[in-house]
Amino acid sequence: MKILYLLCLIAGSTAFAQTITFKGCINLFDDQTFIFNKTGVDTNNKSIYVTTPVDGEPCSGLGTCEFKIQWNNTLTRWEFIADEGYGTFTNPKLVYYNSTGNNTVSFPPGNSIGTWVENTAFTTGLCNGNLTAANSTMTGDVQTTTLGTSDLSKNKIQIFPNPVTDFIRISGIDNGLSIQIYNIDGRLVKSEMFDSKIDVSQLIPGGYILKINTRDFQTHQFKFVKK
């Protein structure tokens, strides 16, 4: 059986990269870090992420360590699925699912948003339970706070005006690191170092999500409308 593993990249090494870095369930997937690359969006404007395997480490009984994160509209949940061993995803295995994150967003929740439930029917409990910060890492193009943020964050952080024509201003953050702006399809359209004044004049009219990353590893997300 051909044994495959994944080329490990650093998530966000390119400013406009849309990747998810994952490490977890090492009893089944060995001590590996996996990089999911965004391959497109589905008919519900939800992003689809797939790993790319290369020859290398074993992946327990799967034959290939190839995974996909995608939206299941029928069950209204995000799913983390494993390839059946042939690289086709025609009969994939459900590893985790999350139906409690912010499902209005076009990219999936991280391991701290909602609950990524272990599908023990497939894993037989070898993933050590639901995904948490203690048993996994999940970073990159994922939700790290709920949209709208907590009441505490709302009181501290504001973006204005909204709707906006030319510039968004941010108040209440003194340790900003970077910002990303995503359109409603989940596509990253702007990424730059943090500034309290952001030029959005070149964006086409419509709805967007502003993601603010701070130096203490917090993320705040806001919806806004470009006129």
Automatic annotation (TrEMBL):
* Superkingdom of origin: Bacteria
**Keyword tags:** Signal
Q: Which InterPro entries match?
A: Secre_tail
Keyword Signal attached: yes
Q: Which residues form the signal peptide?
A: 1-17
- Domain Secretion system C-terminal sorting residue range list: 159-220
| Protein name from the UniProt record | Secretion system C-terminal sorting domain-containing protein
| Organism the protein comes from | Chryseobacterium sediminis
Q: What is the lineage of its organism?
A: Bacteria, Pseudomonadati, Bacteroidota, Flavobacteriia, Flavobacteriales
